Amino acid sequence: MRITVISVGKIKEKYIVQGIAEYKKRLSPYAKLQIIEVADEKAPENLSEAEMQQIKQKEGERILQHIDQNQYVIALAIEGEMWSSEKLAKELDKLTTYGNSNIVFVIGGSLGLSKKVYDRANGLLSFSKMTFPHQLMRLILLEQIYRAFKINRGEPYHK
What we know:
Helix content: 40-55%
Number of helices: 5
Number of domains: 1
Radius of gyration: 16 Å
Distance between the termini: 25 Å
Strand order of the largest sheet: 2-1-4-3-5
Mean pLDDT: 94
Order of helices and strands: EHEHEHEHEH
CATH superfamily: SPOUT methyltransferase, trefoil knot domain
Low-confidence stretches: none
Strand content: 15-25%
CATH class: Alpha Beta
Oligomer: single chain
Protein backbone atom coordinates (compact mmCIF):
# COMPACT_ATOMS: atom_id res chain seq x y z
CA MET A 1 0.00 0.00 0.00
CA ARG A 2 1.13 3.52 -0.79
CA ILE A 3 -0.12 6.35 1.41
CA THR A 4 0.49 9.99 0.65
CA VAL A 5 -0.34 12.80 3.04
CA ILE A 6 -0.56 16.20 1.39
CA SER A 7 -0.81 19.09 3.79
CA VAL A 8 -0.64 22.85 3.64
CA GLY A 9 2.16 24.57 5.53
CA LYS A 10 5.41 23.62 7.20
CA ILE A 11 5.66 22.23 10.68
CA LYS A 12 7.83 24.33 12.94
CA GLU A 13 7.17 22.82 16.36
CA LYS A 14 9.92 20.37 17.24
CA TYR A 15 7.67 18.04 19.25
CA ILE A 16 5.28 17.61 16.30
CA VAL A 17 8.18 16.98 13.89
CA GLN A 18 9.50 14.30 16.29
CA GLY A 19 6.07 12.69 16.61
CA ILE A 20 5.63 12.56 12.84
CA ALA A 21 9.09 11.03 12.44
CA GLU A 22 8.17 8.35 15.00
CA TYR A 23 4.97 7.38 13.17
CA LYS A 24 6.71 7.43 9.79
CA LYS A 25 9.16 4.90 11.24
CA ARG A 26 6.36 2.79 12.75
CA LEU A 27 4.43 2.79 9.46
CA SER A 28 7.39 1.71 7.32
CA PRO A 29 6.75 -2.07 7.66
CA TYR A 30 3.12 -1.60 6.59
CA ALA A 31 3.08 0.96 3.79
CA LYS A 32 5.13 3.28 1.66
CA LEU A 33 4.49 6.69 3.17
CA GLN A 34 5.10 10.00 1.46
CA ILE A 35 4.44 13.37 3.09
CA ILE A 36 4.11 16.36 0.81
CA GLU A 37 4.01 19.89 2.20
CA VAL A 38 2.63 22.62 -0.02
CA ALA A 39 3.19 26.29 0.76
CA ASP A 40 0.49 28.14 2.60
CA GLU A 41 -0.64 31.59 1.55
CA LYS A 42 0.23 34.40 3.90
CA ALA A 43 -2.95 36.11 5.01
CA PRO A 44 -3.80 39.04 7.26
CA GLU A 45 -6.17 38.52 10.20
CA ASN A 46 -9.25 40.18 8.71
CA LEU A 47 -10.09 38.72 5.31
CA SER A 48 -13.14 39.19 3.16
CA GLU A 49 -14.98 36.10 1.94
CA ALA A 50 -13.54 36.69 -1.55
CA GLU A 51 -9.99 36.87 -0.17
CA MET A 52 -10.52 33.65 1.81
CA GLN A 53 -11.76 31.87 -1.31
CA GLN A 54 -8.78 33.16 -3.29
CA ILE A 55 -6.34 31.84 -0.67
CA LYS A 56 -8.07 28.43 -0.57
CA GLN A 57 -8.02 28.33 -4.37
CA LYS A 58 -4.26 28.99 -4.54
CA GLU A 59 -3.51 26.39 -1.86
CA GLY A 60 -5.91 23.98 -3.57
CA GLU A 61 -4.09 24.31 -6.89
CA ARG A 62 -0.82 23.44 -5.13
CA ILE A 63 -2.45 20.38 -3.56
CA LEU A 64 -4.00 19.16 -6.82
CA GLN A 65 -0.62 19.31 -8.60
CA HIS A 66 0.47 16.36 -6.45
CA ILE A 67 -2.57 14.14 -7.02
CA ASP A 68 -2.63 11.60 -9.84
CA GLN A 69 -5.74 10.35 -11.59
CA ASN A 70 -5.34 6.81 -10.18
CA GLN A 71 -5.11 7.87 -6.53
CA TYR A 72 -7.98 7.51 -4.07
CA VAL A 73 -8.33 10.83 -2.23
CA ILE A 74 -9.68 11.32 1.28
CA ALA A 75 -9.91 14.97 2.29
CA LEU A 76 -10.01 15.86 5.97
CA ALA A 77 -12.92 18.20 6.59
CA ILE A 78 -15.05 19.15 9.58
CA GLU A 79 -18.16 18.46 7.51
CA GLY A 80 -16.90 14.99 6.54
CA GLU A 81 -18.03 11.65 7.89
CA MET A 82 -16.74 10.69 11.36
CA TRP A 83 -15.22 7.23 11.61
CA SER A 84 -14.01 5.21 14.54
CA SER A 85 -10.47 3.80 14.40
CA GLU A 86 -12.00 0.42 13.53
CA LYS A 87 -13.99 1.95 10.66
CA LEU A 88 -10.84 3.61 9.27
CA ALA A 89 -9.08 0.24 9.43
CA LYS A 90 -11.99 -1.44 7.66
CA GLU A 91 -12.12 1.25 4.94
CA LEU A 92 -8.37 1.06 4.27
CA ASP A 93 -8.60 -2.72 4.06
CA LYS A 94 -11.59 -2.49 1.71
CA LEU A 95 -9.81 0.01 -0.54
CA THR A 96 -6.77 -2.22 -0.97
CA THR A 97 -8.94 -5.29 -1.50
CA TYR A 98 -10.69 -3.57 -4.41
CA GLY A 99 -7.54 -2.25 -6.08
CA ASN A 100 -7.20 1.19 -4.50
CA SER A 101 -3.82 0.74 -2.87
CA ASN A 102 -2.64 4.28 -3.65
CA ILE A 103 -4.39 6.48 -1.10
CA VAL A 104 -3.98 10.21 -0.53
CA PHE A 105 -5.07 12.06 2.61
CA VAL A 106 -5.36 15.83 2.23
CA ILE A 107 -5.09 18.30 5.11
CA GLY A 108 -5.95 21.89 4.27
CA GLY A 109 -4.55 25.10 5.67
CA SER A 110 -6.04 27.27 8.37
CA LEU A 111 -8.94 28.32 6.11
CA GLY A 112 -9.74 24.80 4.93
CA LEU A 113 -9.82 23.35 1.43
CA SER A 114 -10.95 24.73 -1.92
CA LYS A 115 -14.04 23.51 -3.74
CA LYS A 116 -11.81 21.94 -6.42
CA VAL A 117 -10.07 19.79 -3.80
CA TYR A 118 -13.44 18.75 -2.34
CA ASP A 119 -14.65 17.90 -5.85
CA ARG A 120 -11.56 15.75 -6.51
CA ALA A 121 -11.87 13.89 -3.21
CA ASN A 122 -13.43 10.45 -3.22
CA GLY A 123 -14.50 10.98 0.38
CA LEU A 124 -14.48 13.47 3.22
CA LEU A 125 -13.29 12.39 6.66
CA SER A 126 -13.83 14.29 9.89
CA PHE A 127 -11.89 13.56 13.05
CA SER A 128 -14.11 15.80 15.15
CA LYS A 129 -16.45 18.76 15.04
CA MET A 130 -13.63 20.58 16.83
CA THR A 131 -11.02 22.52 14.90
CA PHE A 132 -7.42 21.31 15.22
CA PRO A 133 -4.25 23.06 14.07
CA HIS A 134 -3.41 21.56 10.69
CA GLN A 135 0.15 20.83 11.88
CA LEU A 136 -1.14 18.74 14.79
CA MET A 137 -3.70 17.06 12.51
CA ARG A 138 -0.88 15.55 10.48
CA LEU A 139 0.45 13.79 13.59
CA ILE A 140 -3.02 12.62 14.63
CA LEU A 141 -3.71 11.29 11.12
CA LEU A 142 -0.47 9.30 11.01
CA GLU A 143 -1.18 7.80 14.42
CA GLN A 144 -4.64 6.70 13.26
CA ILE A 145 -3.29 5.20 10.02
CA TYR A 146 -0.75 3.27 12.08
CA ARG A 147 -3.51 2.14 14.45
CA ALA A 148 -5.58 1.01 11.45
CA PHE A 149 -2.76 -1.23 10.22
CA LYS A 150 -2.34 -2.74 13.69
CA ILE A 151 -6.10 -3.42 13.87
CA ASN A 152 -6.17 -5.00 10.40
CA ARG A 153 -3.27 -7.30 11.27
CA GLY A 154 -4.69 -8.24 14.62
CA GLU A 155 -1.58 -6.92 16.32
CA PRO A 156 -1.70 -5.45 19.83
CA TYR A 157 -1.67 -1.70 20.24
CA HIS A 158 -2.10 0.51 23.27
CA LYS A 159 -5.76 1.44 23.78
